[in-house]
Amino acid sequence: MTQTKKNKKETGITPEEVAEWLGENPNFLPRHPELLDDLAAPSRKLGRGVADLQQALIEKLRGDMELARQRQRELVETSRANLNSQTRIHECIVAMMSAASFEQLIQTITTDFAVLLDLDVVTLCIEADRSELGTPHTRGLHIVPAGTVNHIMGSGRHVLLRSFIEGEPEIYGGGAPLVASDALARISISPKTPPGLIAFGSRTAGKFEAGQAVELLAFLARVSERAIRIWLKQS
Fold first, then answer.
1. What counts of helices (H) and strands (E) characterise the chain?
2. Looking at the domain assignment, is residue 20 inside a domain?
3. Partners of 184 in the beta sheet?
4. Which helix (H) or strand (E) holds 182?
5. Number of domains into which the chain is organized
6. At what angle do helices 215-234 and 53-97 cross, to 10 degrees?
7. d(CA 47, CA 49)
8. Which pTM value belongs to this model?
9. Are 188 and 195 in contact (CB under 8 A)?
10. Does residue 210 sit within a domain?
11. Could you tell me which of 27, 57, 24 has the C-alpha nearest to residue 41?
12. How far, CA to CA in Å, does 205 sit from each of 10, 111, 116, 209?
């Protein structure tokens, strides 16, 4: 290594050398526009009362680029979350299809769903007269009085998301104290059976909130009610 090169390595590149190199390579910055984010554009003295529109335009373009990048990151994160949710719903459906009996199907909904969806408690509620059906022996299956579904969800609503709540014992049983946020999906097994709902409860307040997409939960509820209907016809 020559003494000149050694001295340059020790002292670093000078501003003059950078300017000279950029002058000899005018296409470098257009090919690497990201470098402009870290460069301060020089302000120009244009006279009293005259605005430097070039400086303002550069700052605006930088702001637009950062906003575009932020939106791109949010879009990627949302896409990943949606894909993850879709995968979990598919796993729930496969688990239902694998049930070897009606009892196992109900257990899948009220136990396996909680694990597959990373929730704290999932229950299946059916409207009926408790004196006629007695107390269900299947964990997670609850009998609720007639009119309960419409009272909680409102008439005609298929999915209800609640952000900050205290879980109702009639819906969640002993798991009610765990529930701080939930999603309720109405189910209609057949025209001859009373209405019901699947309750998805989480201990994380705000996990479910108004404005979130509900298509996947609604789809899971539809598949669940049809799976129950098939087993009831076979039994």
1. 10, 5
2. no
3. 160, 199
4. strand 181-187
5. 1
6. 10
7. 6
8. 0.67
9. yes
10. yes
11. 57
12. 58, 21, 19, 9
**31 is written with which tokens?**
């090919």
Tokens of 120: 């704290």
- CA–CA dist 70, 159 (Å, integer): 31
Instruction: List the domain range (segments joined by +) for residue 136.
Output: 99-234
Residues ≥6 apart with Cβ < 8 Å to 167: 121, 175, 176, 177, 178, 179, 180, 182, 201
Rg (CA), the chain: 31
Do 37 and 65 form a contact (C-beta atoms < 8 A)? yes
Q: Which two tokens stand for residue 110?
A: 């009220």
Residue 9 placed within a domain: no
Cα–Cα nearest to 140, from 164, 119, 162, 166: 119
Two tokens, residue 229: 């209907």
Q: Please give the single-letter amino acid code of residue 91.
A: E
Q: What is the pLDDT along the chain (235 residues), one digit of tens a residue?
A: 455 555 555 567 888 888 888 888 878 767 776 676 666 655 555 556 555 656 666 777 777 778 888 888 878 776 777 778 899 999 999 999 999 999 999 999 999 999 999 999 999 999 987 555 555 567 789 999 999 999 999 888 899 999 999 999 999 999 999 999 999 999 998 888 889 999 999 999 999 998 888 999 999 999 999 999 999 886 5
- Map residue 4 onto helix, strand or coil: helix
Residue 70 is encoded by which pair of tokens?
Answer: 């932020």
Q: Residue 124, class by beta-carbon neighbours within 10 Å (0-12 exposed, 13-18 middle, 19+ buried)?
A: buried
Return the CATH number at 182: 3.30.450.40
Structure tokens of 43? 């302000």
